[in-house]
C-alpha cells in the first residue's frame, strides 16, 4: 500500500466531499444553502446572467465534479469541472484580497488548485478509475478536460466582467442629474 495512494484518496475525499456539499447547497438547498432559486438570485446580483442557468452550472460543476473526485472516476473531468467553478468563484472574491477572513479568494483558490492537481495526478490506486483500468483517465482526457474547463471559466469570467461594467455604467447614468453633468440649475 503506497502512501501516495492514501494521500490521493484523502485529498479526493476531503476536497471532493466539500465540493459535493457546496453544489448541494446551490442545487437543492441542502446544508442551509439557497437552492436553485436563492442561488439564481445571488448569481444574478453578482453579474452572472442569466442567474438560474449559472446557478445550475455552478452547482452541477461543484456537485458533479466533487462526486467524480470522491469516486476517483473520470478524475480529469471531475477535477477540471470543479477547478473551473472555483476559478470563477475566486474572481468574484478577488477584489476583497486573498484571505477568506476579509471575503477574499483564498478558499475557492485552494479548492480549485487541488481539483486541478488531482485532474493532472490522477486518483491513485483506491479509485474507480484504477478499478476500470483507467478507461476514463487518459492523458488526452486530462488535456481536453482542462482546456475545455479553462475556456469555459474564461468565457464565464469575461461575460460577468462585461455585465458588472454595464451595470455600473447604468447605475452611474441613473445617479447623474437629470439636466446632465455640469449643467447649471436655475434658481
UniProtKB/TrEMBL annotation:
Transmembrane segments: 67-92, 104-120, 140-157
UniProt topology in membrane: Multi-pass membrane protein
Segments for region (Disordered): 166-187
Subcellular location: Cell membrane
One Pfam family, short name: DoxX
Source taxon at top rank: Bacteria
GO cellular component: plasma membrane
Major location (coarse): membrane
Alphabetically ordered keywords of this record: Cell membrane, Membrane, Transmembrane, Transmembrane helix
Family indicated by similarity: Belongs to the DoxX family.
Protein name (record): Putative oxidoreductase
Source organism per UniProt: Kineococcus radiotolerans
Amino acid at each position: 500500500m503506497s502512501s501516495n495512494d492514501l494521500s490521493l484518496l484523502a485529498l479526493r475525499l476531503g476536497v471532493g466531499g466539500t465540493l459535493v456539499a457546496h453544489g448541494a447547497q446551490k442545487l437543492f438547498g441542502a446544508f442551509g444553502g439557497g437552492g436553485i432559486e436563492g442561488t439564481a438570485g445571488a448569481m444574478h446580483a453578482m453579474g452572472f446572467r442569466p442567474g438560474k442557468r449559472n446557478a445550475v452550472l455552478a452547482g452541477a460543476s461543484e456537485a458533479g465534479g466533487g462526486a467524480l473526485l470522491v469516486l476517483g472516476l473520470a478524475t480529469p473531468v471531475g477535477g477540471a469541472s470543479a477547478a473551473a467553478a472555483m476559478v470563477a468563484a475566486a474572481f468574484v472574491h478577488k477584489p476583497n484580497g486573498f484571505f477568506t477572513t476579509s471575503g477574499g479568494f483564498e478558499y475557492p483558490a485552494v479548492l480549485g488548485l487541488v481539483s486541478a492537481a488531482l485532474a493532472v495526478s490522477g486518483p491513485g490506486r483506491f479509485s474507480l478509475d484504477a478499478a476500470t483500468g483507467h478507461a476514463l483517465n487518459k492523458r488526452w482526457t486530462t488535456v481536453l478536460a482542462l482546456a475545455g474547463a479553462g475556456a469555459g471559466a474564461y468565457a464565464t469570467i469575461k461575460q460577468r466582467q462585461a455585465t458588472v461594467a454595464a451595470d455600473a455604467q447604468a447605475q452611474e447614468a441613473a445617479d447623474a442629474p437629470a439636466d446632465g453633468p455640469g449643467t447649471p440649475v436655475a434658481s
